[in-house]
Amino acid sequence: MAGATTAQRGTPSSDRPGRPPRKGAGSPKPPKAPKPAKTPKTTAPRGPGKHLRRGPVLASLAAAVLLVSGGTWVLYGSSWLRVEKVTATGTEVLTPEQVLAAAAVPVGSPLVSIDTDEIESRVRGRLPRIDSVDAVRAWPHGIGLKVTERKPVLLIKKDANFVEVDASGVRFDTVPKAPAGVPVLELNAGGSPSARRFDEERLLHEAVLVAGSLPAPIAKETVQVKVGSYDSIVLELTGGRSVRWGSGEQSDAKGRALTALLKASPKAGHFDVSVPTAPAAAGS
After folding, report:
1. How far, in Å, are 57, 77, 80, 239 from residue 64 at the CA level?
2. Residue 103: partners with Cβ closer than 8 Å, 6 or more residues away
3. N or C: which end of the chain has fewer CB within 10 A?
4. Cβ-based neighbours of 133, under 8 Å, separated by 6 or more
5. How far is 206 from 223, CA to CA, in rounded Å?
């Protein structure tokens, strides 16, 4: 009996009926899930990598600075691109030397520093005969001046001299001798009823308008432009011929009518184009 009692005491408590087995007493623990491995942190390389990226940028900047500095020196500091020669073309009455003297281009200065607008203004201011001037750089050492002179279409007698007037009414020069082929103004409108309304300047404008609109062959044969009033302008041609022009209105049409009359009646001495649609010729 004693042995049996001993055997019962040695029986594990889990074998006792009616009681659940103690946790972990007789069964193994379930294995734990493995933790995910940590990804090692990576760091950008320092030192040599940054220098590799900065190197080309710094080299490009240095090259740009050298290029700009070198270009500036070539344009302003070197003797390669400096003014050595100035030329003038397009003169007729004036001489190239007169234009060059008026331009006063600073020879020896860097070509890039020359102010061409200032040169043009200087030439026009000092030489009223110049209608326009174009100053251009002729690389690597030159400045070229292309001028256009004013053309007189009418002369105003002043003492022993003649004042030249262009087609815009600009009185640009006084000469001792009348240029060939340019008519002289004869203004005699003192007794005209319209003298109060049309002053001398207005009548001069009308005379210039007529003279400037004449076809070239007729202009060469016109000796005088006589103005008696606003609507009484008469042209005196070579050979004693005269033309009643009327006012300065429709001058282009009157010029065409007179051209046709001169061809149709070459021996006529008097022409009337005051009404260009009904021109007339008379006398011999």
Report:
1. 11, 19, 22, 77
2. 86, 88, 119, 122, 123, 135, 143, 145
3. N
4. 99, 119, 120, 123, 124, 145, 146, 147, 148
5. 17
The CA distance from 183 to 162, in Å, is 11
Q: Quick one: pLDDT at residue 185?
A: 97
10-56 pLDDT tens trace: 444 444 444 544 544 444 555 555 555 555 555 555 555 555 556 56
In one-letter notation, the amino acid at residue 62 is: A
For residue 172, the one-letter residue type is: F
User: What is the C-alpha to C-alpha distance for residues 257 and 183, in angstroms, rounded to an integer?
Assistant: 20
- Over 90: is that where the pLDDT of 4 sits? no
- Reading the block at residue 197, the tokens are 């309304």
3-state secondary structure of 248: coil
Contact yes or no for 263/235 (Cβ under 8 A):
no
To which residue do tokens 């302003």 refer? 76
Both tokens assigned to 252: 């282009």
Tokens 């972990």 sit on residue: 24
Tokens of 35: 């933790």
First to last CA, the chain: 186
Token pair of 57 as six digits? 């940028």
Answer yes or no: are the C-beta atoms of 259 and 218 closer than 8 Å. Answer: yes
Angstrom distance (rounded) from CA 129 to CA 171: 9
pTM for this prediction: 0.68
Q: Is 130 helix (H, G, I), strand (E, B) or coil?
A: strand
Of 97, 142, 148, 149, give the one whose Cα is nearest residue 116.
142
pLDDT for position 155:
97
Select from 123, 117, 168 the least CA-distant residue to 147: 123
Residue 273 dihedral angles phi and psi, to the nearest 5°:
-120, 20
pLDDT surpassing 70 at residue 150: yes
